[in-house]
């Protein structure tokens, strides 16, 4: 099944903005935590996005997968690095991670087409 991951990303971003309007303290706290935990430190932002993607695949969060594929690319990750991350997620999550790894692969392919 082919999904429009760019549209999913944009829709999720819009919905998170709407959620922020309804629960501003929670979403402001989440935003601060996200920024603090995903910025460059001893680990690069790219490495942190790849870790987040691997976790997203193993916990089976489609929205998280879309966001972290997008953000990994934005942080400078290559398609090969993302594919290796999918492989590690499959190791750690088994069969279900294969299914969600396919989601990540499709998102990667769609975002890569948009960037070219």
The tally of beta strands, per DSSP, is 0
Largest sheet: none
The name CATH uses for the topology is AhpD-like
Work out the strand percent: under 5%
Distance between the termini: 23 Å
Uncertain stretches = none
Shape: globular
Number of domains: 1
Rounded mean pLDDT is: 95
At CATH's second level, what is the architecture? Up-down Bundle
The secondary-structure class comes to: mainly alpha
Return the CATH class. Mainly Alpha
Percentage of residues assigned to helices: over 70%
What count of helical segments does DSSP give?
Answer: 5
Relevant terms:
116 residues, mainly alpha, AhpD-like, 0% strand
In short:
The chain is mostly helical. The protein is 84% helix and 0% strand.
Structural commentary:
It is globular, with a radius of gyration of 14 Å. Helix 1 (5-22) packs across helix 2 and helix 1 crosses helix 4. The chain contains five helices and no strands. It has a single domain (5-115), classed as AhpD-like (Up-down Bundle), CATH 1.20.1290.10. By secondary structure, the chain is mainly α.
Question: Secondary structure elements and their pairing?
Answer:
Elements: H1 5-22, H2 24-38, H3 45-58, H4 62-74, H5 79-115
Helix pairs in contact: 1-2, 1-4, 3-4, 3-5, 4-5
